[in-house]
């Protein structure tokens, strides 16, 4: 089995050595030994780091991601949670698409003042409602 030095794993994965040490500390990855003072990892660690990155991109917390690995590091992906996360991303995409379209309209709006533009007023109302919901 070929072992990867922490520096090599960091370079290959794009994850800093300090983050690798933190991930090890909280149990997301495991080193399999040391070469002097430098941690050594097996090839599975690179796969785990890719899954961690994917989970973070999808909005999962590190604690959520930790629960997606068995003790031996094998991924256990909870399909129901993944479906829920995908649905939430779909809703977020729809909302961001509406926001993008409204901003494009406002940027090119022929109204003399943005405050005279009905679409801009609706955008401001939406922002006010969204801000109120997030503070509650």
TrEMBL record:
SMART domains registered for this protein in UniProt: HTH_MERR
Question: From which residue to which does any coiled coil extend?
Answer: none
This protein is called Helix-turn-helix domain-containing protein
Q: Which Pfam families match?
A: MerR, MerR-DNA-bind
Domain (HTH merR-type): residue spans on this chain: 3-71
Transcription regulation among keywords? yes
**Database matches in InterPro entries:** DNA-bd_dom_put_sf, MerR-type_HTH_dom, MerR_fam, Tscrpt_reg_MerR_DNA-bd
The residues the entry assigns to the signal sequence are none
Q: Which UniProt keywords apply?
A: DNA-binding, Transcription, Transcription regulation
Q: Keyword Aminoacyl-tRNA synthetase, does the record have it?
A: no
